[in-house]
UniProtKB/TrEMBL annotation:
Organism: Candidatus Methylopumilus rimovensis
GO cellular component term of the entry, any: cytoplasm
Keywords attached to this entry: Hydrolase, Pyrimidine biosynthesis
Keyword set includes NAD: no
This protein's name: Dihydroorotase
InterPro entries: DHOase (IPR004722), DHOase/Allantoinase_Hydrolase (IPR050138), DHOase_cat (IPR024403), Metal-dep_hydrolase_composite (IPR011059), Metal_Hydrolase (IPR032466)
């Protein structure tokens, strides 16, 4: 099977391409990239006029909810939702049920996802057994079973000695830690950002020092042990300042930010809107502004969806008793386009942060449109108007802070390994 994508605006940050070109796909790979390719070379033609053609998105934080949480969603439903967002690479954290701390569970997840042929799933193995923060897992066995890195998901290691030993082990085998920076004691029982909104709503707040204390500890140990670290979902201006300094000092650290933190603040919680119950919590406007600045200046390496579908019953509970998380895989690219449009940020710079930069962080050869590379492609219609609601979202989780809002721009097709896995409008 061969596919010719014609007349699209091709954006490929790795190869510094932003031009109107055709792409020919043959035997699952990109075989030609040029102007006016002969239609006779293909068995199928996709007209991409007025559309953006870019590498398939690699999402560094996408909760697939399997194994064990099928009442929220299934592996197939969320991989299809990811495809509807142009995502072909999915990094899933280990806080499933059971937790991904056994090689057999990782192999099962890999085998099941590969059978669906909807994208590449990159599991993060648990750094400690049952994410208990006490006993290290068999890290090397997990790596050999298919884990691309190691994480504690939303359960930070409290014991500094355990964190130190885990970094020593990872460093020995040249493996990477993917951590969300949070001090468990400082954030204990916290619900939202500490400030005026938490006071008004009577909800326990989480101070920004919870994030910065953890970042300081992680960076110092990473520097000492020469461990590669990726920090997930940074939410505070102070935290970004620390990471910027660490990078200048040669610490091997990268970081990402959730798409929610780019557009929302704790003010959006309004009158107990549980769709805004997220981890880390939505912060202040000054933090949001700093995040946008840090995307532009390169302190933030990547942008993730933080897709975490939650069933409706758990969102209908009182705010403090509800479950954190939101569906966002289908919104990542439309919101990236909105960010580029509203803040006049070069679209190629932003596409880089959801395609090639994540592939660099994962140390894989993906996220580009090079000749002979595997044909993972997102085709995005920047002019398509749509409303975010329960009918337009494919994910089993219908909760998002952007619910009922109108957006301009939607993924129209997604190709994985040379096969069309999503066709929209």
């Amino acid at each position: 099977m061969s596919i010719l994508i014609k007349n699209g605006r091709v954006i490929d940050p790795k190869n510094n391409i932003d031009a109107d070109l055709d792409i020919l796909i043959a035997d699952g790979k990109i075989s030609e990239l040029n102007k006016n390719l002969d239609p006779k070379k293909a068995t199928q033609i996709i007209d991409a006029s007025k559309k953006i053609v870019m590498p398939g998105i690699i999402d560094l934080q996408l909760n697939l909810r399997e194994p064990g949480n099928q009442y929220k969603s299934t592996l197939e439903s969320e991989m299809k939702a990811a495809n509807a967002g142009g995502i072909t690479g999915m990094v899933c954290p280990p806080d499933t049920t059971p937790i991904l701390d056994e090689p057999g569970l990782v192999k099962m997840l890999k085998n099941k996802s590969e059978a669906l042929k909807l994208g590449n799933v990159y599991p993060l193995g648990a750094l400690t057994q049952e994410l208990n923060g006490k006993l290290l897992t068999e890290i090397n066995d997990l790596y050999e079973s298919g884990c691309i890195g190691f994480s504690q998901a939303e359960k930070p290691i409290q014991d500094t000695e355990v964190l130190y030993r885990s970094f020593q082990y990872l460093s020995t085998f040249n493996l990477k830690a993917f951590l969300r920076a949070e001090d468990a004691y400082l954030s204990e029982k916290g619900i939202i950002n500490a400030g005026e909104i938490s006071t008004r709503l009577g909800l326990k707040g989480i101070q920004s020092i919870s994030e910065t204390t953890a970042i300081n500890k992680i960076l110092e140990i990473a520097d000492l042990t020469k461990t590669k670290v990726h920090l997930n979902k940074i939410s505070t201006a102070e935290g970004l300042n620390l990471i910027k300094i660490a990078k200048k000092n040669g610490v091997n650290v990268t970081c990402d930010v959730s798409i929610h933190q780019i557009f929302l603040t704790d003010n959006d919680i309004g009158f107990f809107n549980t769709n805004c119950f997220l981890k880390p919590p939505l912060r202040k406007e000054s933090d949001r502004v700093k995040i946008i600045e840090s995307i532009i200046d390169g302190t933030i390496d990547a942008i993730c969806s933080d897709h975490s579908p939650v069933n409706e019953d758990n969102k209908l509970k009182p705010f403090a008793e509800s479950e954190y998380g939101a569906s966002s895989a289908e919104l990542l690219m439309p919101l990236i386009f909105k960010l580029s449009d509203e803040y006049k940020i070069d679209l190629s710079l932003l596409v880089n942060k959801i395609t090639y930069q994540p592939s660099n962080i994962l140390e894989i050869n993906k996220g580009n449109l090079s000749i002979n590379s595997e044909a993972d492609i997102c085709i995005f219609d920047p002019e398509y108007p749509w409303e975010i609601n329960s009918k337009t979202l494919i994910s089993e989780g219908k909760n998002t802070p952007f619910f009922n809002q109108n957006l301009t721009g939607k993924v129209s097709s997604t190709i994985f390994n040379g096969n069309i896995v999503f066709i929209g409008h």
